[in-house]
Write a structure and sequence with these properties.
CATH topology of the largest domain: Umud Fragment, subunit A
Number of strands: 9
CATH class of the largest domain: Mainly Beta
Helix content: 10-25%
Number of domains: 2
Order of helices and strands: HHHHHEEHEEEEEEHE
Strand order of the largest sheet: 3-4-9-5-6-7-8
Length: about 250
Amino acid sequence: MEIKDIRRARVRELIDRNFRGIDADFANRIGRQPSYISRIFTEKAEHRRNIGEALARQIESECGIEAGSLDRPFGDDEPLSKAVAGAARPRVEMAPIDAWDDSTPLDDDEVYVPFLREVELAAGSGRFVIEESDQARLRFFKKDLRHNNVQFSNAKCVVVRGNSMLPVLRDGATVGVNTGKNSFGDIVDGDLYAINHNGQLRVKQVYRLPSGIRLRSFNRDEHPDEDYTFKQVQEEQITILGHVFWWGMFAR
């Protein structure tokens, strides 16, 4: 077995054992996009990302496992679970949770981030536009927005609907969107973006093509790729609302 295959299998076991099999939680731990992790495990070899030396050592450091663990070959005397389960783990201290609601004043280091929503133009018209909600909002620390290079006024939230982004984003998940990165020139292939598709709010991986763009779902078995030429982008009124810089959802 080649080192790239050993590392991929070791990381899969690490995610399954220490992160309940949730790739997004693992991605958050090592500071990567969920789309990056999905490309590590894609079945298509031509689209697959290998885990290089630097990333392997970073994963071991961030996850508190012994250096070199991801490179250990398999053998009857050392099952995969032993190397991962027996590795040292960092001590985690849980901080108290402060409850708050909309009437709780903002701290100096916090900012309100509004939600975007679909709004029907006229009853029964079937036409929608995307507007800011005047009620729904989340609190973000200013330092977290600065860390992600997001100006406070450009931060918005979007609720993901449907199963197209499973297993990374479930129905009802919330994503934070940087509306300052909303041009086709800003697209980083494979990253997540919030999209206005003729008044419909969508969250997809986006790729630039010579003739247009590709919208991709994580759940590709039920939601195949959507390719649009630049002409179709205009006809279907597809615009990039912003780059997804954060996501969160309740466990089920």
